[in-house]
Amino acid sequence: MIKGEIKAAFKASLPIMVTFIVLGMGYGILMNEHGYGALWSVASGIIIFSGTVQFVSVSMLSGGSFFMAAVTALMVAARHIFFSISMIGRYREEGKKKWYLFYALCDETYALLSSDSEPAWANKSAYRFWVTAFNQTSWILGSLLGGLAGRFLPFDSEGIDFAMTALFTCVFVQQWIDAKSHIPAILGLVVTLICRLVFGKEFFLIPAMIIIIAALTIMRGKIEKQEGGDNV
Taking the model in full, what pTM does it have? Predict the structure, then answer.
């Protein structure tokens, strides 16, 4: 049966894997342009595994701002805490595997696994593990390939860091279409814009994330009611 779960997980993850390999290559190339080799890109994919954070932190790391890079990484990836909380019920019986499932839970993996779209015959535990592993592995592979390509082939990296902006714009539009409650989207846009005007482009991200997280926590009940209740 495990072979069946592997095939099903691979099929479900394939669109994400292709995207992750391409974006990971862009990240690897960008890291190389800033003086970090392929192994740094691989280590980042294993330790951090958050495409947004990794792209954002490149310029900060190259500028020597390690503290700001760490704080920014924490705030940008804070949404994963809420993802993990919502998956506690599903992962309750996963045993030791649940620590990896929580650790490697990114936006795209969450979208797949939170919808409970696995085949009816599948072992849910095995399916969840392989979906998570395939997605993370594809990102790491793309980062490795990009790092190696950036080292041995000449690349103009201008515009590569816009890849995540384009991806999350598409995700935002799709979630706006699918979601019943637009409070999180509107809140994110308004708070980010205000913080950008107040704190400037260098320092707006952290206060914006703090305010958004606090506001979403306070308004959680209303949002869940509009969405039709909690599915945990």
Answer: 0.71
Domain encompassing residue 100:
2-160
- Give the mean pLDDT of 179-206: 84
Pairwise CA distance, residues 207 & 195, whole Å: 7
Any domain includes 170? no
Do residues 164 and 52 make contact, with C-beta atoms less than 8 angstroms apart? yes
Non-local (6+) Cβ contacts of 118 within 8 A are: 8, 12, 124, 127, 128
In a domain, 26, yes or no: yes
Residues 57 and 109 in one domain: yes
What is the CA angle 22-201-157, rounded to 5? Answer: 30
Residue 29 reports pLDDT greater than 90: no
What confidence score (pLDDT) does residue 92 get? Answer: 86
Instruction: For 134-198, give the DSSP string.
Output: HHHHHHHHHHHHHHHHHHHS----TTGGGHHHHHHHHHHHHHHHH-S--HHHHHHHHHHHHHHHH
Does the pLDDT at position 218 exceed 50?
yes
Asked whether residue 125 falls in the same domain as residue 212, the answer is no
Residue 171 placed within a domain: no
Q: Look over the chain and give the mean of its residue pLDDT values, rounded to a whole number.
A: 81
| CB-CB neighbours of 217 under 10 Å | 9
Q: Is residue 173 part of a domain?
A: no
The encoded tokens of residue 162 equal: 């816009």
